[in-house]
Amino acid sequence: MNKRALGRTGLDIAPLVLGGNVFGWTADEQASFAVLDAFVDHGFDTIDTADCYSAWAQGNSGGESEAMIGAWVKARPGMRDRVKICTKVGSVTGGPHPGGLSETYIHEAVERSLERLGIGTIDLYFAHWPDPAGTTYAETLGAFAKLIDAGKVKAIGVSNVDAGQLAASLEAAEAAGLPAYQVLQPEYNLYDRAQFEGPLQTLCRERGIGVVTYYSLASGFLSGKYRSERDFGQSARGGDVGRYLDARGKAILAALDGVADKHGAAPAEVALAWLLAKPDVTAPIASATKVAHVESFARAAALSLGIDDMELLDAAGA
């Protein structure tokens, strides 16, 4: 499988990243291991998770996904050399998982993540959300610099920031001689385009920042299985897609159906192929609870959309 350079991190990755938010939540150990095995068997090599996954689920406190991935790596000798592992720090969920991006918290959190994952180095460490406590960029980036120097982190990225925030962080890094964020993880899909397209996209392009998108299938809406409120009960995430069922969402589904029929593909595969064809996107992140989902990812990675396909999809979601 052709690899793509992940910004200026020095990492080359397969063109689709496996989202780990479901591991330890809607995917138990057996299902998680099967998905992870299939993912690697199909030639993919990068897994994304976060220290807060899945603190939102009843009985969980965060770290369940990292622990599941760590158990899988331990059970598969040699696997650590075959995969790149990305995780995040800083999400404020309250309770047993306070979050934040202070130097103290980052240094505490990274040790917990490394222990759960059972690895010595995190390939890519993201600042998950802007710190509501107002920690300065210099403090956060200084903490990341120490982790890089200690060999605990190879590269750093940031998620859920706008163009102004990303630019401010880059300026702070340059002013203090600190490492800058090299990868952005924005919410971006055929429906949710406003956050990334425009100034943020331009800044990433100008600064050579890699982009891995989350909610690449809009919580499953772009799979086409949610056509009305009656369909919400199909999964634990079904309730999240109600906001997409407006005129624009239905127009996007119609466009996906048309392109999917033309190529003999599934709507989800077309939605991922649309992201893969965007020149400023390194790779979309997509989650899977079944091996069949991973097989669909492989078909998406091999799907080549024409200019007319892209224009149709762009117009439907504009």
TrEMBL record:
Residues 15-316 form the NADP-dependent oxidoreductase domain. GO terms for cellular component: cytosol. The lineage of its organism: Bacteria, Pseudomonadati, Pseudomonadota, Alphaproteobacteria, Sphingomonadales. PANTHER family: NADH-SPECIFIC METHYLGLYOXAL REDUCTASE-RELATED (PTHR43364), OXIDOREDUCTASE-RELATED (PTHR43364:SF6). It holds the Pfam family Aldo_ket_red. This is Alcohol dehydrogenase. It comes from Novosphingobium guangzhouense.
